[in-house]
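Q: Structure for this?
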Amino acid sequence: MTASVTRRAWLRGIIAAAVATAFVGPAAAQQTLKFGLAMPLTGSQSSFGKDQIKATEWAVADINAKGGVAGKKLEVIVLDTQADPTIGINAVNRLINVDKVPVFVTAWSAVVKAVAPIANREKVLELSIGANAPEISKLGDYVYTAFPLADVDLTALATYTGKTLGHKRVAVLYANNDSGVEAAKVYRSVFEKAGGQIVAYETYDPKATDFTGMLLKVRTANPDFIHLHGLVADMPIVIAQMRQLGITQRVSTYAGGYNPQMIEKAGKGAEGLIVTSLAPDERQNPNVGPYIERWKKAENRIPNGLPYTQYLYDAAYLVAALYEHLEKNKLPATGENMRKALLAVRTFDLPMTGKLTINDDHTVRKPVNLLTVQNGQFVPLTTVD
Amino acid sequence: MEYIYSVLILIGINIIMASSFNLIIGYGGLISIAHPIFFALAGYCSAIVSMKFGVPIPLAIVLGTLFSTVLSVALSLPSLRVSGDYLLIASIGFQLGFVEVIKNIEAAGAASGLTGIPALYSGPLRSPAFVVTILAVAALVVWLVHRMTHGDYGRAIQAMRDDEECFTSLGRNATAIKVAIFAVGSGVAGLAGALYAHYSQFLSPEQFGIIQSGLILTMVVVGGMGTTWGPVVGALLLTALPQAITFVNLPTAIMAPLQGMIYTGLVLLFLFVRPQGLMAKKVRQ
């Protein structure tokens, strides 16, 4: 059997397949208002990426069901980034040059940064929604975030810990990755400025399974409180090992920890855990309750990273508002006009996350919800403006 | 058009990577997985000397390439003297270790990645210029690997790979050949990395994990190990195929698993149907 498949036959097959795929694609062209969405569909981050994409796709369907934007249909073109910068560059090049989108939405800090030179060069509006590296606000004229960067929720959290809870000695533990390193720096500087003391500042490999060494150092430093900044995959393990070693101090983390998996995996150890959320909950926004119900009905679960999916749901409404501005002023749909539209409209009223104002320094501010774990449930603690 | 350029550039980079890796693993029989780290080291070195010390970019690229070459000797010399398996283990350590080192160097952007790397070319002809440069380098690398592995020196390399004891008994120095091809292969990977750094203008340690090693290995295996054109076809196929799939307008629920399965699927398919790879003539004994 092996010998019957020749080199030529293989090559012929490949070329035929390549030609065939090239023709299938552009068949369904139609006058729609397009925007790109470059997210991880595969790879380690795909469980979050897929839910965020679903949220955007729902929103696009909802907008179109109500008649679209100025009578035209909104269309989202989804491409996989695997949360990897190299693959992200290709995806964005394709969105800009093949699909000719004037605006695209992307997330994951490394991808946001890697594609920024393309957005600036090609003059296409890049909307970062979900990534929170503080550097994102300084990536150039065409890169804007519609999601509060790390300084917003960590400032609120560090201030709450120092002022309201009255803790003076805090240990900071962070995963040695993009998000962890930057966030730990922000937390330390805010907490120290407020007069507190960071008694331990330790980094760990998020792929590790044993954190005893680091945790023993923390125990020796004897902090009043612990701030942890990692991924949902590693944080419950860190907390569980903390409790085993007799470290009973209360722990806080960021929006990434607002995930039911934290409680499932860390069990009783998660009691008292403080997390942040940058999106309103069902009491603060009447649209959120039905949205969660929709997830339960369609997928039989709560989405991975609920607040992030709320922002991605709103991404479609944000883009729709930009297109509406262009249609109203009869401007062609170019990246330059998209950027102008963003700055002209500036304040958006979005269904899931409420009012959004784009600041001149490319940042946005949002009220920060603090939640805590009580009897195995996340319950609201307070809201910091 | 810009999109076609970016795919061509990626194909060119992957051809350089796969061809040079083929020199090491296919012709030399040296089992190493540290290929992407030499790409990374040269990229970072070139980016940093051009950003912090104002070295002109072409010179920075040369320095980056040399840096990778020198470090490859530092890896291969101690581990090759022993034997094959040690190289594999040392290369895993080298790969993982240096990624961690990069993650902790502030000047290299640490875990957040290095932004603002100057571009080699700018202006309206930027992308075509990159395409021409990278494809020219790729052609040169394929030619170089072909020249090295054919003729007298090529026969020596393959004799060393197939029976090292017999080769040594003829009075030839196996270690010298191994170190030489490892240095050339890694240096070429470094050149690709330095060019890439000044094209993408962004580097992050996450780009150079073990997954990258697997990807390049897949290109070599699918294309055909130990052949001149195998890695070229493998790089072309495995770079273009995932791109082509995105043009078939599939719903995301199908697209996601499909994208994820391409590599595994291809490797399994080839394992059964054509274990010698696309471009090899017959199954090697």
